[in-house]
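Structure in, sequence out. Go:
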């Protein structure tokens, strides 16, 4: 799984970083991917964060 955040869309709400801090981190006013998901729990969390992002800024690509 490859996760990315479109910084031009992100509004910095912090939801993804709160849900999966191992993957997402707020830097400045936007979320950045600090590490790709490594565990099943992180993958599920990243997938759910992508679905829950209010501005659809998170992209998840299956390898
Ligand atoms: S949930 Fe979406 S809008 Fe909110 S911080 Fe994460 S990427 Fe940005």
């Amino acid at each position: 799984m490859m996760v990315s955040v479109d910084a031009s869309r992100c509004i910095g709400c912090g939801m993804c970083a709160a849900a999966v801090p191992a993957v997402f981190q707020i830097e400045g006013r936007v979320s950045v991917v600090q590490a790709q998901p490594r565990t099943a729990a992180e993958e599920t969390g990243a997938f759910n964060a992508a679905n829950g992002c209010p501005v659809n800024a998170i992209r998840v690509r299956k390898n």
